[in-house]
Design brief:
This protein is mainly alpha-helical. Helices cover about 65% and strands about 5% of the residues.
Amino acid sequence: MTTADIDASTVARQRELHDLMEKFITLRRRAFIPRAREIAAEAGIDEAALAFLAHLRQISEGDFVPRERLRHRLCYSSREPWRGRFDVLAAAGLAAPAEGGWRLTARGLAVVERVWSAIHEQLRSLAIPAEPLRRTLALLERTVGDARAGEYDRLTMIRRCAPSDRARAHEAVRLEQAMFETCVLLDDGHIAAWRSAGYRGPELDVLTKVWYGSGTREALRQALRAGQEPEDVERHIAQLVARGDLAADGETVALTPQGRAARDRIEEDTNRLGLSRWPRGDELERAIADVDAILGAFPPEDRLPTGPTH
Protein backbone atom coordinates (compact mmCIF):
# COMPACT_ATOMS: atom_id res chain seq x y z
CA MET A 1 0.00 0.00 0.00
CA THR A 2 1.34 3.45 -0.91
CA THR A 3 0.84 6.75 0.86
CA ALA A 4 -1.60 7.74 -1.88
CA ASP A 5 -3.84 4.81 -0.90
CA ILE A 6 -4.56 6.41 2.49
CA ASP A 7 -5.69 10.03 2.33
CA ALA A 8 -4.81 12.57 5.00
CA SER A 9 -8.28 12.54 6.57
CA THR A 10 -8.14 8.76 7.00
CA VAL A 11 -4.68 8.97 8.57
CA ALA A 12 -5.97 11.63 10.98
CA ARG A 13 -8.85 9.40 12.03
CA GLN A 14 -6.56 6.36 12.38
CA ARG A 15 -4.31 8.45 14.60
CA GLU A 16 -7.38 9.44 16.62
CA LEU A 17 -8.18 5.75 17.14
CA HIS A 18 -4.57 5.20 18.18
CA ASP A 19 -4.82 7.99 20.76
CA LEU A 20 -8.09 6.61 22.15
CA MET A 21 -6.56 3.16 22.59
CA GLU A 22 -3.53 4.68 24.30
CA LYS A 23 -5.91 6.59 26.55
CA PHE A 24 -7.58 3.30 27.54
CA ILE A 25 -4.19 1.82 28.43
CA THR A 26 -3.17 4.94 30.36
CA LEU A 27 -6.42 5.10 32.37
CA ARG A 28 -6.30 1.39 33.13
CA ARG A 29 -2.71 1.77 34.35
CA ARG A 30 -3.59 4.75 36.53
CA ALA A 31 -6.52 2.86 38.03
CA PHE A 32 -4.06 0.06 38.86
CA ILE A 33 -1.72 2.31 40.89
CA PRO A 34 -3.19 1.45 44.35
CA ARG A 35 -2.75 -2.27 43.67
CA ALA A 36 0.75 -1.65 42.28
CA ARG A 37 1.68 0.15 45.49
CA GLU A 38 0.61 -2.88 47.52
CA ILE A 39 2.60 -5.30 45.36
CA ALA A 40 5.67 -3.02 45.41
CA ALA A 41 5.55 -2.80 49.21
CA GLU A 42 5.26 -6.59 49.49
CA ALA A 43 8.25 -6.98 47.15
CA GLY A 44 10.36 -4.42 49.03
CA ILE A 45 10.82 -2.04 46.07
CA ASP A 46 9.39 1.30 44.99
CA GLU A 47 6.64 1.71 42.41
CA ALA A 48 9.01 2.82 39.65
CA ALA A 49 11.11 -0.34 40.12
CA LEU A 50 7.95 -2.47 40.05
CA ALA A 51 6.86 -0.84 36.78
CA PHE A 52 10.26 -1.61 35.27
CA LEU A 53 10.12 -5.20 36.52
CA ALA A 54 6.65 -5.78 35.06
CA HIS A 55 7.79 -4.41 31.69
CA LEU A 56 10.56 -7.00 31.55
CA ARG A 57 8.00 -9.55 30.38
CA GLN A 58 8.31 -7.86 26.96
CA ILE A 59 12.04 -8.51 26.84
CA SER A 60 12.88 -11.59 28.87
CA GLU A 61 13.45 -15.13 27.65
CA GLY A 62 12.30 -17.18 30.61
CA ASP A 63 14.29 -15.78 33.52
CA PHE A 64 16.97 -14.19 31.31
CA VAL A 65 16.85 -10.52 30.31
CA PRO A 66 19.20 -9.92 27.34
CA ARG A 67 21.00 -6.58 27.42
CA GLU A 68 20.69 -6.22 23.64
CA ARG A 69 16.91 -6.37 23.81
CA LEU A 70 16.93 -3.63 26.44
CA ARG A 71 18.99 -1.45 24.13
CA HIS A 72 16.56 -1.96 21.28
CA ARG A 73 13.55 -1.37 23.52
CA LEU A 74 15.03 1.98 24.60
CA CYS A 75 16.29 2.89 21.14
CA TYR A 76 15.73 6.63 21.60
CA SER A 77 17.91 6.83 24.69
CA SER A 78 21.66 7.42 24.69
CA ARG A 79 21.75 6.43 28.37
CA GLU A 80 21.48 2.98 29.91
CA PRO A 81 18.85 3.79 32.55
CA TRP A 82 18.14 0.12 33.22
CA ARG A 83 21.40 -0.31 35.13
CA GLY A 84 20.15 1.63 38.15
CA ARG A 85 16.83 -0.21 38.02
CA PHE A 86 18.58 -3.58 38.09
CA ASP A 87 20.65 -2.43 41.06
CA VAL A 88 17.37 -1.86 42.95
CA LEU A 89 16.00 -5.24 41.87
CA ALA A 90 19.25 -7.01 42.81
CA ALA A 91 19.25 -5.39 46.27
CA ALA A 92 15.72 -6.73 46.81
CA GLY A 93 16.70 -10.24 45.70
CA LEU A 94 14.62 -10.06 42.52
CA ALA A 95 17.41 -10.13 39.89
CA ALA A 96 21.14 -10.76 39.49
CA PRO A 97 23.75 -9.87 36.84
CA ALA A 98 24.45 -12.54 34.22
CA GLU A 99 26.57 -12.86 31.07
CA GLY A 100 24.97 -10.65 28.43
CA GLY A 101 22.30 -9.28 30.73
CA TRP A 102 20.52 -10.19 33.94
CA ARG A 103 18.56 -13.09 35.40
CA LEU A 104 15.38 -12.77 37.39
CA THR A 105 15.35 -14.83 40.55
CA ALA A 106 12.48 -17.17 41.37
CA ARG A 107 11.13 -14.42 43.62
CA GLY A 108 11.50 -11.85 40.84
CA LEU A 109 9.58 -14.07 38.42
CA ALA A 110 6.87 -14.55 41.04
CA VAL A 111 6.46 -10.77 41.43
CA VAL A 112 6.17 -10.34 37.65
CA GLU A 113 3.48 -13.03 37.59
CA ARG A 114 1.70 -11.39 40.52
CA VAL A 115 1.59 -8.05 38.70
CA TRP A 116 0.21 -9.51 35.47
CA SER A 117 -2.32 -11.68 37.31
CA ALA A 118 -3.54 -8.58 39.16
CA ILE A 119 -3.75 -6.65 35.87
CA HIS A 120 -5.88 -9.40 34.33
CA GLU A 121 -8.09 -9.42 37.42
CA GLN A 122 -8.52 -5.67 37.08
CA LEU A 123 -9.43 -5.98 33.39
CA ARG A 124 -11.98 -8.71 34.12
CA SER A 125 -13.65 -6.45 36.70
CA LEU A 126 -14.19 -3.50 34.32
CA ALA A 127 -17.77 -2.74 33.35
CA ILE A 128 -17.08 -2.54 29.60
CA PRO A 129 -20.19 -2.44 27.39
CA ALA A 130 -20.55 -5.86 25.75
CA GLU A 131 -21.14 -4.97 22.11
CA PRO A 132 -18.36 -2.36 21.76
CA LEU A 133 -16.03 -4.82 23.51
CA ARG A 134 -16.96 -7.67 21.18
CA ARG A 135 -16.70 -5.58 18.00
CA THR A 136 -13.44 -3.87 18.96
CA LEU A 137 -11.76 -7.09 20.02
CA ALA A 138 -12.69 -8.85 16.78
CA LEU A 139 -11.53 -5.89 14.69
CA LEU A 140 -8.17 -5.42 16.42
CA GLU A 141 -7.27 -9.11 16.50
CA ARG A 142 -8.08 -9.26 12.79
CA THR A 143 -6.08 -6.07 12.16
CA VAL A 144 -2.87 -7.43 13.68
CA GLY A 145 -3.46 -11.01 12.65
CA ASP A 146 -0.28 -12.74 11.58
CA ALA A 147 1.73 -9.54 11.04
CA ARG A 148 5.39 -10.46 10.78
CA ALA A 149 7.88 -8.98 13.23
CA GLY A 150 11.59 -9.41 13.97
CA GLU A 151 13.19 -10.16 17.32
CA TYR A 152 13.66 -6.51 18.22
CA ASP A 153 10.37 -5.18 16.86
CA ARG A 154 7.95 -3.89 19.45
CA LEU A 155 5.20 -6.14 18.17
CA THR A 156 7.33 -9.17 19.07
CA MET A 157 7.98 -7.68 22.50
CA ILE A 158 4.31 -6.95 23.16
CA ARG A 159 3.30 -10.42 21.99
CA ARG A 160 5.37 -11.86 24.84
CA CYS A 161 2.85 -10.26 27.23
CA ALA A 162 -0.16 -12.07 25.75
CA PRO A 163 -1.99 -14.45 28.11
CA SER A 164 -0.66 -17.98 27.74
CA ASP A 165 -4.04 -19.34 26.66
CA ARG A 166 -5.18 -16.33 24.71
CA ALA A 167 -8.17 -17.93 23.01
CA ARG A 168 -9.67 -18.81 26.41
CA ALA A 169 -8.75 -15.55 28.15
CA HIS A 170 -11.41 -13.05 29.22
CA GLU A 171 -12.41 -10.70 26.39
CA ALA A 172 -11.25 -7.60 28.32
CA VAL A 173 -7.78 -9.13 28.82
CA ARG A 174 -7.59 -9.92 25.12
CA LEU A 175 -8.84 -6.41 24.29
CA GLU A 176 -6.00 -4.60 26.04
CA GLN A 177 -3.47 -6.98 24.50
CA ALA A 178 -4.95 -6.32 21.05
CA MET A 179 -4.84 -2.56 21.68
CA PHE A 180 -1.16 -2.80 22.59
CA GLU A 181 -0.35 -4.84 19.50
CA THR A 182 -2.28 -2.54 17.16
CA CYS A 183 -0.66 0.58 18.59
CA VAL A 184 2.87 -0.80 18.28
CA LEU A 185 2.34 -1.45 14.56
CA LEU A 186 2.65 2.33 14.30
CA ASP A 187 5.72 2.38 16.56
CA ASP A 188 7.44 -0.27 14.46
CA GLY A 189 6.53 1.60 11.29
CA HIS A 190 8.10 4.76 12.69
CA ILE A 191 11.31 3.01 13.74
CA ALA A 192 11.61 1.34 10.33
CA ALA A 193 11.04 4.71 8.63
CA TRP A 194 13.81 6.61 10.45
CA ARG A 195 16.26 3.74 10.24
CA SER A 196 15.68 3.51 6.50
CA ALA A 197 16.38 7.25 6.29
CA GLY A 198 19.77 6.69 7.94
CA TYR A 199 19.16 8.05 11.46
CA ARG A 200 19.89 6.70 14.91
CA GLY A 201 17.24 6.90 17.61
CA PRO A 202 18.70 9.62 19.86
CA GLU A 203 19.67 11.74 16.86
CA LEU A 204 16.19 11.37 15.36
CA ASP A 205 14.65 12.34 18.70
CA VAL A 206 16.48 15.68 18.56
CA LEU A 207 15.29 16.28 14.99
CA THR A 208 11.73 15.38 15.97
CA LYS A 209 11.68 17.75 18.95
CA VAL A 210 12.78 20.61 16.70
CA TRP A 211 10.17 19.52 14.11
CA TYR A 212 7.53 19.78 16.87
CA GLY A 213 8.70 23.28 17.83
CA SER A 214 11.60 23.16 20.31
CA GLY A 215 13.68 26.06 19.06
CA THR A 216 16.51 26.46 21.59
CA ARG A 217 19.26 24.29 23.00
CA GLU A 218 17.80 24.65 26.48
CA ALA A 219 14.34 23.58 25.28
CA LEU A 220 15.90 20.49 23.71
CA ARG A 221 17.90 19.66 26.82
CA GLN A 222 14.73 19.85 28.91
CA ALA A 223 12.59 17.88 26.45
CA LEU A 224 15.17 15.10 26.15
CA ARG A 225 16.51 14.97 29.71
CA ALA A 226 14.94 11.57 30.45
CA GLY A 227 16.94 9.86 27.71
CA GLN A 228 19.96 12.02 26.95
CA GLU A 229 22.63 13.85 28.91
CA PRO A 230 23.09 17.54 27.98
CA GLU A 231 26.38 16.71 26.22
CA ASP A 232 24.58 14.02 24.18
CA VAL A 233 22.01 16.57 23.03
CA GLU A 234 24.79 18.95 21.99
CA ARG A 235 26.56 16.16 20.09
CA HIS A 236 23.40 15.23 18.22
CA ILE A 237 22.67 18.85 17.37
CA ALA A 238 26.17 19.10 15.89
CA GLN A 239 25.65 15.89 13.89
CA LEU A 240 22.36 17.15 12.49
CA VAL A 241 23.93 20.51 11.61
CA ALA A 242 26.75 18.69 9.79
CA ARG A 243 24.16 16.57 7.98
CA GLY A 244 22.36 19.72 6.82
CA ASP A 245 19.13 19.07 8.74
CA LEU A 246 19.52 21.77 11.40
CA ALA A 247 20.85 25.31 11.53
CA ALA A 248 22.24 26.49 14.87
CA ASP A 249 22.94 30.12 15.74
CA GLY A 250 24.05 30.48 19.34
CA GLU A 251 21.21 29.25 21.51
CA THR A 252 18.73 29.04 18.61
CA VAL A 253 18.19 25.79 16.70
CA ALA A 254 15.97 25.49 13.63
CA LEU A 255 15.13 23.05 10.86
CA THR A 256 16.64 23.66 7.45
CA PRO A 257 14.44 23.02 4.39
CA GLN A 258 16.32 19.73 4.00
CA GLY A 259 15.67 18.78 7.63
CA ARG A 260 11.97 19.57 7.39
CA ALA A 261 11.63 17.57 4.19
CA ALA A 262 13.49 14.63 5.72
CA ARG A 263 11.33 14.59 8.85
CA ASP A 264 8.15 15.02 6.79
CA ARG A 265 9.14 12.00 4.68
CA ILE A 266 9.73 9.96 7.83
CA GLU A 267 6.21 10.83 8.99
CA GLU A 268 4.76 9.84 5.63
CA ASP A 269 6.65 6.55 5.70
CA THR A 270 5.55 5.99 9.31
CA ASN A 271 1.92 6.23 8.22
CA ARG A 272 2.49 4.04 5.17
CA LEU A 273 4.29 1.32 7.11
CA GLY A 274 2.49 1.57 10.44
CA LEU A 275 -1.12 2.11 9.41
CA SER A 276 -1.42 -0.09 6.33
CA ARG A 277 -3.25 -2.85 8.26
CA TRP A 278 -5.52 -0.48 10.18
CA PRO A 279 -9.26 -0.16 9.47
CA ARG A 280 -10.61 2.52 7.18
CA GLY A 281 -13.97 3.97 6.20
CA ASP A 282 -17.09 2.90 8.11
CA GLU A 283 -15.16 0.24 10.02
CA LEU A 284 -12.76 2.88 11.33
CA GLU A 285 -15.55 5.24 12.33
CA ARG A 286 -17.35 2.48 14.24
CA ALA A 287 -14.11 1.55 15.99
CA ILE A 288 -13.56 5.13 17.14
CA ALA A 289 -17.11 5.27 18.53
CA ASP A 290 -16.73 1.89 20.22
CA VAL A 291 -13.42 2.67 21.92
CA ASP A 292 -14.85 6.00 23.07
CA ALA A 293 -17.75 4.07 24.65
CA ILE A 294 -15.33 1.59 26.25
CA LEU A 295 -13.50 4.47 27.95
CA GLY A 296 -16.65 5.01 29.99
CA ALA A 297 -15.61 2.01 32.09
CA PHE A 298 -13.20 4.29 33.96
CA PRO A 299 -13.88 7.12 36.41
CA PRO A 300 -13.16 10.69 35.27
CA GLU A 301 -9.42 11.30 34.87
CA ASP A 302 -9.30 13.78 37.74
CA ARG A 303 -10.48 11.04 40.12
CA LEU A 304 -7.71 8.58 39.16
CA PRO A 305 -4.44 8.41 41.12
CA THR A 306 -1.16 9.53 39.60
CA GLY A 307 2.30 8.05 39.91
CA PRO A 308 4.62 5.57 38.21
CA THR A 309 2.75 3.09 36.00
CA HIS A 310 3.82 -0.26 34.59
